[in-house]
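Appendix B. Raw example, untouched.
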Amino acid sequence: MALTGFYFDGHSARRYAVTLETRDGVLHIGGDVTRSDALVAVDIPSPLGHTPRQILFTDGAHCEVADHAGFDAMFQPTQRGLSLVAHLEARWTYVLAALATTVAIFGAGYVWGLPYAAEKVAERIPEHMLVSLDNKTIATLDEQEVLQPTKLSQARQNALISRLRAMKWPQGAIMPGHVYFRSAPDIGPNAFALPGGSVILLDELVNLSDNDEQIFAVLAHEMGHVAEHHAVRNMLQASAVGLVMTWYVGDISTLLAAAPTALLSASYSRDFERRADEFSARTLKLNNISTARLGELLLKLEAAYADNKDARPEWLDYLSTHPNTDERVRNTQDNSDADEK
């Protein structure tokens, strides 16, 4: 019997139409190219799905044959048994099972593995490094005039700090470090807790609040981020997701890679926000403050940012990585109702 196929010389992309025959342990190539090689001197790889079968020659040339059945019949005496991978690739059930297993492994790594690893790494970062990072961050924000000097009186600052220092905190949580009072009209009402425990409290948030309890509810939320190392963990997790997407897609700058990376990272951020809300609720309960105070100020924040959405930078979208505000308000209201019962 004879087979038809294509011959590639290994030096150019040109293909040659050839016929293949075997006689007395020798493979004979005819057609556009003629050559003869002992069967024991050629390499016949295992089949790969429905791709053409190949014959590899020692000089780098190779032949491709599309007729799988004819190929197997011609070379069966010289072929070793198919590899386990070839057997599995030939069956859709195994292919689907392998795909499902791969997806499950990556999913488990994303949901449990990566957050656990990031948490353990964040816990081992020396505190003095985080404090140094806080100081450099504040200095940079001041130098670039992202933050402006506060307009709050010294008496008002002292009153807020004194009450903040007197608050009780959940067991194991660190006390707030240095409190920086600043103004930032371009940012709007907000408060930030940096990884080392320093707190930035903006005048705009103080002025927006109806009472100090609302301010302390937000500050407790921010300290929840510090207590669970959310800033460092989010940085580690986002970096890992970005590396995986870059490896898979090739270029993280492309929309194809950047979009899923942003979505996956935002999922981690939303989880951290929920955890910080829970921390705030526990802190407020310890200080006999209604947990509804957080929800009250969240609604005011959402309204304030909605009014100024067109005027502020797009990257400062406060709600972009946060859970739905209505959901957060319901959770704080539920906690408040539980307190009353």
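End of appendix B.
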